[in-house]
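Re: beginner question about structure tokens

> Can someone show what the tokenized structure looks like for a real chain? I only ever see the sequence side.

Sure, here's an example I had lying around. Input first:
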Amino acid sequence: MRLTVRLIALLVIIAAAYVVWAWRSPMQGVAAPAKSTFDVAQLRHGSELAAIGNCVQCHTAPQGKPYAGGRAVPTPFGIVWGPNITPDPDTGIGLYSKQAFLRAMRDGVDRQGRHLYPAFPYDHMVKASANDIEAVWAFMITREPVRQINQTTRLAFPLDQRILLAGWKAMFFNRQAFTPDPGHDAAWNRGAYLVEGLAHCGACHTPRNIFGAETKSAAYAGGQVEGWTAPALNSSSPAAVPWTTARIETYLRLGRDDLHGAAAGPMNEVTHALAGVVAADVAAIATYVADIAGNATPERAAVAAKAVASSRSGAAPVSASDPGSAVYAGACAQCHGDAARAPTNPAVNLALSSAVRAADETNFVNVVHGGIRQPDGLGGPYMPGFADILTPAQVRDLASHVRNTYAGKPDWTGVADAWRRQSAIK
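And the corresponding structure tokens:
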């Protein structure tokens, strides 16, 4: 009995000590300064940094007002809702001083002292300079205030206890600031600063462990985000043709590249955001990402040459022994076939498509099901979806035909099931 009492007392002391250690104090609310008090150059700089971070994507509901929150961000632990970050004083960040904003960005703690879920990538934002974060704050605090009450994130117990996030941070949150590498030039270092920091590319393109933290030993080896596969950016990239700096830059600016395909899913919104960023920063990002990919090995170059040759060989004829060939002829060949592949036609040759060559069927199924559409009617690659046209069996046959014919790879095993899951999503 005495041993039990002592053990309980010890646990109470440890729990109390943890609570004291994890507690963060609230910060006093401060009225937002008038827009006229900010320097125009700082606001412009903040706008571009916010675009590089693509803040609008997670903080804007479908058909909602920019930055007013309400977007569902699916995670393995449940739905996290993007909050309102307009300068509304009641439902947004209108009472955030630049010090409170800096704490949220770098420490993952809001003005009220609550730990933020790492769906918000403060583990990347911590690498941004104080001046850059202040510029983002200046931009955000001068947007149109929108009164929109935030959706409440409700995860299962004990994940709903935000105080536990202090322990998560102790285990996985590296607060080290960005340090330039003297072994590389200014463009590479600028790209590294942006990619590792505000652009937070690793948040999607790096796999995560069972605790939801990035597996740093497998940086840029590919990840999962919002029901899509974010492909590897390193040497294990599924791309048929190795990426170069110039092609990455084109892809980031236009949302497509002839030898790799079009941006889809969450990446579509990223490329639209980057379209308005200064060319030098996009080029710097491309320089750093191309270095992550590394130089093509002779084996990789041979695969690329074979894929390019296959892309010029024409489509396989319709065959009774290959039911997917008929589906392809009816649904895909008009845009992806040789007859339609004019210089101005944006449809990528499927022999070069990363979605077709990927290890799993996720992106292929998503694109065929929902198509590729640009947000808010903006220009860019377009593809109709076939959700109401093809059956699970037809999609399975189509995937088999495309994989075998254009990528020379074996069938995926979960296409029909993935199609049904997509069709069940409302």
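Each token stands for a local structural state, so reading them left to right follows the chain. Residues 27-149+160-172 form one domain.
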